[in-house]
Every structure is written in structure tokens, then in C-alpha cells.
Amino acid sequence: MNAAQRPATPTDAARDTPTRLLDAAQQLVQARGYNAFSYKDLAAEIGIRTASIHYHFKTKADLGAALMDRYLDDLDDALTTIDRAGGDARARLAAFVDTYRLTESQGMLCLCGSLAADLATLPEPVGQRVARFLTRSETWVRDTIARGAAAGELAVDGDPSALATTLIASLQGGLLLARGRAPSAVVDVVAGIFFDRVRPQTPSPSP
Amino acid sequence: MNAAQRPATPTDAARDTPTRLLDAAQQLVQARGYNAFSYKDLAAEIGIRTASIHYHFKTKADLGAALMDRYLDDLDDALTTIDRAGGDARARLAAFVDTYRLTESQGMLCLCGSLAADLATLPEPVGQRVARFLTRSETWVRDTIARGAAAGELAVDGDPSALATTLIASLQGGLLLARGRAPSAVVDVVAGIFFDRVRPQTPSPSP
DNA sequence: GACAATCTATCTATGCATAGGTAGATTTTG
DNA sequence: CAAAATCTACCTATGCATAGATAGATTGTC
After folding, report:
1. Which of A107, A162, A176 sits opposite B113 (nearest CB)?
2. How many other C-beta atoms are found inside a 10 Å radius of the C-beta of residue A65?
3. What is the DSSP letter of A151?
């Protein structure tokens, strides 16, 4: 997901250099991929020399790890916010799906999806964090479905774990297909298919 | 998809150099991504100098385009073979999904999925072919579902177009999630969810 | 001998990283 | 509290490896 669609750049130039570097790097990775951005791009973006970037992030691997650490924190924050907002399971899942829409409209991938595509070439610490992000997302979706079913909020058609895996896969893959289409077209479509199987528990509490 | 899981390297060294270059390049792109392989890697792989590669493929962009051209041909061949095999719609869809399993078991992405992730940095002719591949896959799946429904072979639960988009997205995204998991785990899961909505038209022709 | 396929040698551009320096703020301490 | 020490956040300059590409042999083959 794109939990980390950073809070709309607060006053932008007002942030400190490490934060600005992370912001720019994240944008570049989501738009172009890990192996297609350089310290030079980054330096140009925020107006310092490449050597200065090394002062804040010793190596590109460190920068990548920091990027994913922040993204993991953002995910936790986003999920916590959703959980605390007090909607039912379906509303929570819808809020989760919503986090992908902005990313799609920008023609980007999820930071984690982009890095997952480059997984074989990533420094190991970065790869580990990517895996952690995907696991955490999937677990949250699975648990949200399962709890919704248990609480009688949701009529679930299928195995919560399989549905969760499929939702994450189709959202990540959806962003891959989305570029060059109408904004939100693909996320809407895959979400529609998903929610057909996770319906509000309206009437008959049947057997 | 990975239609182009090249026919198991026939005698391998017996093929001509352009073919061996394409084979090696495809393997590298699927495993590592377009921006993470070089003429040097390729040269080392097949035992010639990088300069010799330029004799066969003037530029990396040419190589990329040739790679996608062949992959598009492979897709057409695969779909034609499936269509001619004479199974019903569900068998055809299952055969289509099967082409993703080998890719998953090798921890790779679909050539087209890998390139889609790097889309923003691709030479334009390559990007166009990537889009063409995705459209063609989606169209085939959609039509296969729709025809299956029309022929009374399939009980389709939802819009064929949305189901097709979701299937492709979840397969492509599935390969993204699959690395580091049990082989075929993710393709099986997303295919299972898909086929719940595209069931054999068994008994009651209902209304 | 002509053409195909490959080679050696080399070029320019770029990537990540390091060394070493500097201006200015902050902290320590006699 | 002022001088000394240290730290922060940059800089210039440079190194060394790799990337894609080119020119001009050389070799093999019909």
C-alpha cells in the first residue's frame, strides 16, 4: 500500500534535510524504481551536492532501509488510525483500499511494490523490510475480515487469508496495470470485485 | 503472464547468438529488472564481449523491443494453442493461469510485469509493447469469460471485464508477493479466488 | 574475396563513495 | 564569560567501477 503518501508536504522547504531527502527518494522510487534513481537525481531535487547526502545517509542501502522504516511506521499509523476511527469491518477495509487510490492517480507504484519488483538486487536489510511490509498488510486485512465475520458485520465468501492475499496482490498488480489508464480505474475495479465477496451482513443471520 | 517461458532451452548452446542473447536477457529482466542488467552481464552469460552484442542489437532499447516482440508472439502462440486445445472456457482459463506457475516457482516476475514496474524509465517503443501485452492478455481473458458464459459453459459472477482485469492484476501482483514463499502458493491462492466466481455451469439452467 | 561474426581497444558519461576542508553553531571548561 | 574544543551541515575534489556505445582490426566460412 501507500500508507506513506506523506502528509502533503507541510510547507515543504521547512522540513529538515533528512526528511526532504527521504521524501524525494520515495517519490523517485515509486515513480522510477530503486535502480533508476541516483544520488545525483536526489541532490538535484533538493539543491545540495551528492557528497552531502552521504553525510545524512552513509550509503544508498542505508537510505533504502530508512525509507522502508518510515514506510512501515506510516503503515502502522494508517492502520491504527483506521482501527480507531470506529467504522465496521467493511468501512475499515474500504479505508485501506482508499490509500491506494492517490498512488494510482499519480501513476506511481506503492513504495513497497516498486521495491518488491527489484527485490533480487536490493541490499538485504531493505529486502527484509519489504517482506515485513507485505506480511503486515496481509495480516491486517486477513484479521479485519475474520473479525468482521466473527462480529457478524460481514458476510464473508471464502477464506479470509486467501481473500487478503488476493486483495493485496490485486492492488499491487493493479498499480502495475494502471499507468496510462484513467485515474483510479483499476483500484476501483479490483476493489469492486473484492467487496462482492465481503458484503455487509444485512438481513438473515441464517444458520 | 509468462507465456514466454521459452521452450526449455533446446540443446541450449545449439541456438544462434541473437536467440541466446534474448534468452539470457529475458531471464535477467524477469529475475532482476530492466535497469539492473547490463550488456556486461549478458556478455558474461553467453561468453562473448559486450561489443559483440551491439552487432546483434544496436542499442539496449532495440534489445528490449525485440524481447517484448518475441514475448508478444509467445503470448499469441500460447493463447492460440489454448484455444485450439478444445477444452471448455474454464479449462482454457486454467491453462492460462498455469503459465504463471513456472514463473512463480522460479522466483521471477512475468517479463511484462517486471518491465511494467520500470515503465517510467523504459525506451518508448518498449513501453508501448508492454501496454500491448497487458491489453491483449486482459482482452483474451475477458472474451473467454464472456464466451463461456454465452455458451452456457460458465456461471459467471460479475462483469467479465472487471473479472479479467482483477485476474491479471492479481496474477501480476501475486508474482510480486510470491518471492520468499512456497512455490505456486500465491498463484494457487489468487486463482482459487478467481475460479470461485467463474464456475462450471453444472445443473439448473435456472431462470 | 566477400560477408558475417566476433574481437581489441577505447570513449564518454554516470554511479556510489571517500578524503579532506570550511563556516558557523554549540558545548565544555578553566 | 571567554577561549578551546567539538559538532553540524555542507562543500570541492577525486577515485574507481560500470554503463552503453563506437571504430577498426581479425577471423572464419561460403
Report:
1. A176
2. 20
3. T
Query: What pTM was computed for the model?
Result: 0.90
CB-CB contact of B119 with A114 (8 Å): no
Q: Strand D and chain B: which residues 53-92 have CB closer than 7 Å?
A: 54, 58-61
The cell for B41 is 552481464
Mutate to test the interface with A, among B139, B170, B198 (most CBs of A within 10 A): B170
Q: Work out if B121's Cβ lies within 7 angstroms of strand D.
A: no
Helices (H), chain B: 17-32, 39-46, 50-56, 60-84, 89-105, 111-117, 124-150, 160-178, 185-195
Per-residue pLDDT of chain B (207 residues; tens, 9 = 90+): 444 444 433 444 447 888 999 999 999 999 999 999 999 999 988 888 898 999 899 999 999 999 999 999 999 999 999 999 989 999 999 999 999 999 999 999 999 999 999 999 999 999 999 999 999 999 999 999 999 999 999 999 999 999 999 999 999 999 999 997 887 689 999 999 999 999 998 654 444
Chain B residues with CB inside 8 Å of A177's CB? Answer: 116, 134, 138, 165, 168-169, 172
